[in-house]
């Protein structure tokens, strides 16, 4: 378990004493120091990490289902996931009638509050000389405090927080008259960026600081206005060594790096300032709405699985007889999460087989691995109309989780009509336009990596399950 340090903050969140900043800075500096060692002194921006491409979608697409639920106005929310939802401004969600009442209530229940913040410039940082040297070596002017004095005037404020018990997403508004320089272009000769560099949290009554990890952050260009910009950040709370409490307030302390993108677009070496900002929110909104249900699911039949081991891509026919999946259904205000892990395997089954089966087809552009479709109108012995669910990231690398956009206000409908999930597997079908068989292997060459290659896949249906009702 990582070492944590004592931290106390009152319910009313009064002005924070200097000792608060010393404690926070020590903890955050320790995290950042380790990060720099692991990344050889280059901190890569997570702007396009995880759900980055999805995050560029400005609004959700809503479709009315042509199913038995059409008469009751069942709404299917294609491409829905909580992070993308939060990245769509509230007025846009409401203006496009894309707001989901259950999710909006979850956001409102978080009740975020600002605590305190401080601003530090490059001249006050321990590695200022080294960072300044890199600036000049890369052909940029040496750091001059007067050029960046406006950074000290940035005022952060928490906007919205969405916590569903697994993912934590929040938006922080940075109010500044120099917002134009963050809009992916130069303004008055400056071109800047903001990222959440590191973060810790303290639970109410805990008195300790806990590191936060496995997150992504960035500024969407469309969030930049004349008087400020919005920084969106997400964390996978299931990956934390110490979980959030199920109720009560949590205080998040983030270190926001302000970077000169002219020095380096994706690295720590362009940093010219940082903001340490604390805010709190109520975690009770992330409480599960119904008891979770765990079920064993047996697989049968022989299928073609695709393997990626080192430089080798391979297809192999594999019997799934004797493979048992452990299914867990978690009911949350932001959707129903259905997760699978391998519980039992037959004799002769290898770790490579497990990696191949549990690889998800949305892990990369190569699009092979496990996939799923769900139906909101399944009945016993009969499938309904199928729709593809979103895949939220899971802390467990051997676990596959699918997010069904079904919310508590809609539980009565699925209790009446049933709902189910169909698992399928996408195996490699062609490599560079040449058909490959069910027993095939290719070792990638230097040319493959340099010039790229094309894969296509075809889908094999494995099994359909009726899911347990909330």
Task: Give a description of the structure.
This protein is an alpha+beta fold and 470 residues long. The protein is built from 9 helices and 22 strands. The chain has a 5-stranded antiparallel beta sheet with strand order 3-11-10-6-7, with helices on one face. A 4-stranded antiparallel beta sheet has the order 4-5-9-8. It has a 4-stranded antiparallel beta sheet with strand order 12-15-16-18, with no helix packed on it. Strand 19 (420-431) and strand 20 (434-435) form a beta hairpin. It starts with 17 loop residues before the first helix and ends with a strand. Residues 1-22 and 29-76 have low confidence and may be disordered.
Based on the model shown, name its key terms.
four-stranded antiparallel beta sheet; 470 residues; alpha+beta
In short:
This protein has 470 residues and is of the alpha+beta class. It is 17% helix and 37% strand. It has helices at residues 18-38, 52-55, 82-87, 90-95, 101-110, 128-137, 351-358, 411-417, 446-451; strands spanning 61-64, 75-78, 113-121, 155-163, 167-175, 192-203, 210-211, 215-219, 228-236, 249-260, 271-282, 290-298, 302-309, 312-319, 324-332, 335-344, 369-375, 400-404, 420-431, 434-435, 440-443, 455-466.
